[in-house]
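Protocol step 4 of 6: structure prediction from sequence.
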Amino acid sequence: MTAEISIILCGTCPLGRSDFRSRLADTLSADDPLLRISTVECMSGCARPSTLAVRAPGKTAYLFGDLTEADLPLIRNFLALYRCSDDGNFPDARVLGDLRFKAVARIPG
């Protein structure tokens, strides 16, 4: 069985206070019913606001910052690649497009 992927959005950041979460859910739910999107009060990414974390059991977790509404297609692409990855790592970050420049942290799984 495929593992659930958790997407956590900072609810204190500008993007988290907008209707981005619902657009993210609408866009991604058709792609992957095992995605779980939640919002937390603050992710302490204030130096690079509008943060979003992605994690799954046994995989490297990611924290992205400086996100905007325009990054939705990049997030969608990242999640497709992440889903297919055995461990959440990518040998070449260029497949992530410009989203690779918005990575704040990569946390080993």
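Step 5 (inspection) to follow. Helices lie at 14-17, 20-29, 72-84.
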